[in-house]
Amino acid sequence: MKKLYLFVVGLILFSLASTAQSSDFIPGGNTIFEDNFSIDPVGDLPAKWSTSGSGQVVELDGFPGKWLKIISGIAFSPELTKKLPEDCTIEFDLIIKNQSCPVIFGLTPLSDVSAGNVNDKKIFVTLQRLTGYPGIIYGKDAQDLGNNNTIKIDGYINRVLHVAIAANKTRFRVYLDENKAVDMPKLLSPEYRNNFFISGGEVIPAPEDGIYISNIRLAAGEADARRLLVKQLLEQGSVVTNQINFNTQTNQPLPESLPMLDTLGKAMINDPNLNIQVNGLVQSPSNEQMNNGNASIPASNTDQGIVKMKVDNIKNYLISKFNIGVDRIVTGVSNKAKGNINALKTSSTGTKLNSFITEILKL
After folding, report:
1. What does pTM read for this prediction?
2. Which end of the chain is more exposed for a tag (fewer CB within 10 A), N or C?
3. What is the average pLDDT score of the chain?
């Protein structure tokens, strides 16, 4: 029995260690550009992309949906209406075949890759399977700044690889599936935010096959607010936010609010000792507000019930997605938050039910 107990403890410790290494990538909440080529005919160039040469939308046996085939020496960039924001994320699915050319992707000062040579100036990551060379190389312009030999590209061949890029101020990170492959804290500068690009690397002799991408999503990161939420919670023990919005019919968090909750969930995974209380603030209007006509009636029991439902839905989301123990999150309804926040706009019932103030306490 003693040996069994020790074995079980070992499994628990291994599980906690594995969890602590989970990816810190958080997708941006506001979509800037999205494409899966569903509206593009097979054999055509995709309608929402620019290219330095040729390419075509294809269907692949064994892989659902449509894919953009990019051959050696050809670059593609999405057609954006403005440059990328300071905090943004870029995601796409990638298929590398046995005979594919190398993959090069990153950020470029060119707003359109057809307007110049993307290789002249760029922040880039190269994925390659060349004998005697690293599998992952990253750099700026024509200079290689480093490589990552701990991740083997052979493990990503002939399957869908999810690539994610996080650009936050000067920091540039790249993830292959959930493995962080590149992290350069002082790499980015504003001129490189004009667009995202992806190209097929040139080698001699030319490879028999290209690379394939689909399910591309570029989004504003809004990372600062999320970073500050966890930072303040850990340092001060409490945080107050009105950045979590809800569907007025279902009382479920809206999709744009999920990155904020994902930040909190990942913080709880990384720190098994972090337990929290989530309160929804029901704010009754003051006499001054009533006299000024900014509110009409005090908060009712119905209002409190709706707020309680919303904070319970926050708890359920975190438990379900991150497999957090039910006893690690307590929910409640409060009439006054302990933290400070700017003046709250009130609805006709005296409470802000669609985007109410949420207070999170460290227990």
Report:
1. 0.62
2. N
3. 81
